[in-house]
């Protein structure tokens, strides 16, 4: 969204007081005012912010992540111990402590309040991650990981995910592909020692989102694409909060482990 009031007023005042040169100075000063107004109105600046676009994305991503997390935890009527533990685990993996941790807890608590409206957060998130599909994917993967903390995805939670996808512009096919991969990764992690080799291999294919009949070339192409999408440095460069880099690293490790298992089985 563009703002022009500051430029117009600044330019006019500069012209009246300093002629053409004053016009340029006034317009530039007005431009700076317009930028600040835009940041405040769009919620893209906060005290202490450097004003960089990537930092704004980080702030919005962080806030929306924990508010949605709280909303999901409360979706079925009560916040279970396992859901609280899952949210706490995310904070631990992010290394949150002190003020940052309290902020995350505060956002989580806001999200689980009855009637809390997520629409403004989701609209802003969609705007700041526009053209950054990998961030939207990472956002959903984090939420699904917490939603499955109690072992299942309740009907109310499914409805909320449908709403999230609609707001973020993610179609049903994309969601089910992400959903299947996250579910397989969680299943593989929880039953890694107890499951048979056949089950582990099936989970590995599901983690990559490919069919067992896929060719070696298709498998490698998908693997490379997923590794690129989840590369921690690339995600942080696109706006993922640096605290969430550990989560991205865990995702890449899951992808790498699944690919190595399939390669070994095919050799």
From TrEMBL:
Residues 1-7 are periplasmic. Its main location: membrane. It comes from the Bacteria. Pfam families: DnaJ (PF00226), TerB (PF05099). InterPro entries: DjlA, DjlA_DnaK_co-chaperone, DjlA_N, DnaJ_domain, J_dom_sf, TerB-like. Residues 32-267 are cytoplasmic. The keyword Calcium does not apply. It is a single-pass type III membrane protein. The keyword Transmembrane helix applies. The chain crosses the membrane at residues 12-33. It is found in: Cell inner membrane. SMART domains: DnaJ. Residues 203-267 form the J domain. Keywords: Cell inner membrane, Cell membrane, Chaperone, Membrane, Transmembrane, Transmembrane helix. Homodimer. HAMAP family: DjlA. The transmembrane domain is a dimerization domain. Regulatory DnaK co-chaperone. Direct interaction between DnaK and DjlA is needed for the induction of the wcaABCDE operon, involved in the synthesis of a colanic acid polysaccharide capsule, possibly through activation of the RcsB/RcsC phosphotransfer signaling pathway. The colanic acid capsule may help the bacterium survive conditions outside the host. This is Co-chaperone protein DjlA.
